[in-house]
Write a structure and sequence with these properties.
With 340 residues, this protein is α/β, with parallel strands linked by helices. The chain has two domains: 12-141, Rossmann fold (3-Layer(aba) Sandwich); 191-338, Glucose Oxidase, domain 1 (3-Layer(bba) Sandwich). Helix content is 28%, strand content 23%. It is built from ten helices and 16 strands. The strands form three sheets. The chain has an eight-stranded mixed β-sheet with strand order 6-16-15-10-11-12-13-9. A six-stranded mixed β-sheet has the order 2-1-3-4-5-14, sandwiched between helices. Strand 12, helix 10 and strand 13 form a beta-alpha-beta unit. Helix 7 (213-219) runs parallel beside helix 9 and helix 9 (250-262) packs parallel to helix 10. The longest helix is centred in the N-terminal third of the chain and has 14 residues, at 27-40. It is globular, with a radius of gyration of 19 Å.
C-alpha cells in the first residue's frame, strides 16, 4: 500500500466536484465558511472550474469531472484533494479515469465520503493508494466544530491515529431542521451504542477497505472491480470491511451484502464494521441486526454495527487502505490506524 503525505502546514489543497457541485442553502454558506476557515489556517486552496451548481444531479459531465480530478491529482503543486460534496452519479466518471496514470503518479490523499466511494475505493483496490473516507470539504462548515471535525483534522494532519466512539448521534427533527442556521451543529439526541451479533466484545485487526454499500454494489462485477486481486495481495494482513449505506432500505442492504458475499468479496475477512444506516427502519421483521446475522452467521466473521461512520453524524474519519485495530467493549469502541 502506498501512503501519500498527510496534510502539512501551508500545503495546497485541491477542491473538486466529482459528483454534486456546491449549490443552494445551506451548502453554499457552509462551503464559503470552510473555504475562508482553511485559508485562515494557512492553507492554499485551488478550486476546480466546475465546482458550483447542480444540473441533472451532477456538477458537469462525467468526462469533465474525471478530467478535473486527474488534473488535480497529476499536478505536483497540489498536495491534498478534497471532494466538495457527495451526490448520486459519480459512477459516470470511472470510465474516464486513467488508473494507469494514477498508479504511476506520486500518490496523494483524496478525501470524501458517500458517492466519493467511487474514488476512495478504487484508489485502494486498483491503484494501491490509501485514501480518506471522511467529511467532504463542506462538512467542515460548522461553528463551533463538533469534536469529530477536530478529530478529522487531527487524522489528516497526523496528530493522532486513534479514534473513540462518540457519546451521541444525530436525530432527525423536522422543527429543528426547519429553524436551523447554516453553520449549526448536529442535532444530537440518541446515545451511541456499538453492537455485536452475539452480544460479546470484539477485537480484530486487518487492512481497511470499503465505503458506501449503495456504490459498492454498483461497482461489483464491473471492469472497476479489482477486489479479488486486492484481497489476495493482502490476505496475510486479513481484510476489514467498513460498510455503511445512504438510500438503501434494510432489504436493499440485505440484498447488497448477499451480492458482495457471493461475489467473493469477504474472503480472508477478519471483521466487518457497519456504520449507522441512514434508513435503519425495519421492513416486515427484518432489522439491521437480522440482515447482518443472516449474511454473516455462517462465515465466522465478527461484526460490529451501529458504528460512528457513514451518513449519520458524528462520524469517524477512516484511513482507507491502512492497517487498523478495531475494538468494541461494553457498547463503546475505538479504531487505531497504522500506515504500513
Amino acid at each position: 500500500m502506498r501512503y501519500p503525505e498527510l496534510l502539512k502546514k501551508n500545503a495546497t489543497i485541491g477542491l473538486v466536484a466529482p459528483s454534486f457541485g456546491v449549490s443552494g442553502h445551506p451548502y453554499e454558506e457552509r462551503y464559503e465558511y470552510t473555504l475562508k476557515l482553511f485559508k485562515d489556517m494557512g492553507y492554499n486552496v485551488v478550486e476546480a472550474k466546475h465546482l458550483r451548481g447542480i444540473r441533472h444531479a451532477k456538477s458537469t459531465s462525467g468526462k469533465i469531472r474525471a478530467r478535473e480530478f486527474m488534473q488535480m491529482y497529476l499536478n505536483d503543486d497540489i498536495d491534498f484533494i478534497f471532494s466538495v460534496a457527495g451526490g448520486e452519479l459519480m459512477l459516470e466518471i470511472l470510465p474516464y479515469i486513467n488508473f494507469k496514470k494514477l498508479k504511476k503518479a506520486k500518490p496523494k490523499y483524496f478525501m470524501g465520503l458517500s458517492d466519493n466511494t467511487c474514488l476512495t475505493f478504487t484508489l485502494n483496490t486498483i491503484c494501491d493508494v490509501a485514501s480518506i473516507y471522511g467529511p467532504c470539504f463542506g462538512g467542515f462548515g460548522m461553528d463551533p466544530w463538533h469534536v469529530s471535525l477536530q478529530d478529522a483534522m487531527d487524522i489528516i494532519t497526523g496528530k493522532k491515529n486513534t479514534l473513540y466512539s462518540y457519546p451521541q448521534y444525530r436525530v432527525y427533527d423536522e422543527e429543528v431542521r426547519r429553524n436551523a442556521q447554516p453553520l449549526d451543529g448536529y442535532n444530537l439526541g440518541a446515545d451511541v451504542v456499538y453492537k455485536t451479533l452475539d452480544g460479546e466484545d470484539k477485537k480484530f485487526s486487518g487492512r481497511l477497505v470499503g465505503g458506501c454499500l449503495d456504490l459498492l454494489t454498483n461497482i461489483c462485477g464491473t471492469q472497476f472491480d479489482h477486489v479479488k486481486e486486492f484481497i489476495e495481495k493482502y490476505k496475510d494482513d486479513g481484510i476489514i470491511w467498513y460498510l455503511e449505506s445512504c438510500d438503501l432500505t434494510v432489504l436493499d442492504q440485505y440484498r447488497g451484502l448477499w451480492q458482495l458475499k457471493n461475489a467473493g468479496w469477504f474472503e480472508h475477512c477478519k471483521g466487518i464494521m457497519y456504520g449507522r444506516p441512514e434508513r435503519p427502519e425495519p421492513i416486515f421483521d427484518v432489522t439491521v441486526k437480522e440482515l447482518l446475522k443472516n449474511n454473516f452467521k455462517d462465515t465466522g466473521i465478527p461484526v460490529i454495527y451501529d458504528m460512528d461512520f457513514g451518513h449519520v453524524a458524528p462520524i469517524w474519519t477512516i484511513m482507507s487502505g491502512s492497517i487498523a485495530t478495531v475494538e468494541c467493549h461494553d457498547g463503546k469502541g475505538s479504531i487505531t490506524f497504522q500506515q504500513k
